[in-house]
Amino acid sequence: MSEKIKKTKVSKKSILVTGGAGFIGSHLVKRLAADGYEIVIVDDLNDYYDPQLKRDRLDILLKDSDYVFEKVNIANLANLKKVFEKYNFDMICHLAAQAGVRKSLKDPWIYEQSNILGTMNLLELAKDFDVKKFVFASSSSVYGGNTKVPFSESDRVDSPVSFYACTKRSKELLAHTYNHLYGTKITALRFFTVYGPWGRPDMSYFGFTDLMTQGKQIDVYNHGKMRRDFTYIDDVVDGIVSALEKDFNFEIFNLGNNKPVELMKFIEILEENLGMKADKRYLPMQPGDVVETWADIEKAKKELGYDPKTTIEGGLKKFVDWYKEYNKS
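The chain above was modelled as a monomer; its predicted structure follows.
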């Protein structure tokens, strides 16, 4: 696929959002639609977690948003190419990925297919169809075993501790190479533990809530001695939109909250919002996990105008309010 394909542009705000039925993707689509973008969502609605939640995001969260949906697996180059032949894109926001650190230890091949091959397919098609701007999701996991905190974009990231982290760093290296060889303007966004309404059931805050409301025990790893830089979904979307609207050659930004929260404090806040105490089972650290994440966001503040405002108390309240409403039936 070396020959460039020229097509007439029909919109200055035409965007492909991969993973648009996902947690971050659906919130981003809602914002972009309100801002007047023409949006095509690509998502395969896989069963990593209940696909009904993904369909509900499309049907409920995005019910008043204009978008086109294409059910495509990004690892399938032939089917993905048909999307590029059908629509004209000014930019791509690539959020589709196989998530989950622990699952990556059990089935690394899925991560290679979705995160590495899928990303290469998109970069190739961006090159061939002359899409000049490419923004994509990386992860705080690329900092791996780093002990210096907060994590800065200038830190070395060559010590991944999970296959998931390895694939995310591989995406960054692929992106850098395509920028160097073909001039595609690329921005990588390292997300730090994004949470909020319509979130992913495999993440701790959602899983804890499910188990607590069912009267079941929750597993607390590393005996609760962990800290996470929890970042509310609306703040992250602000950062993504800014990255889409700015003009960078190749840049990497942390999108975190810069305020790590102790795991036990996090559980206490969740307990307060749910009005119940958690039955906790304390366990050792899991393979592939890290003790702490903490984002240095000075670069994002300066270059993106990024300014996260949501506290963990306010963000968890919004999540619990949504959770109760969503599950009331």
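The CA atoms of residues 22 and 287 lie 26 Å apart.
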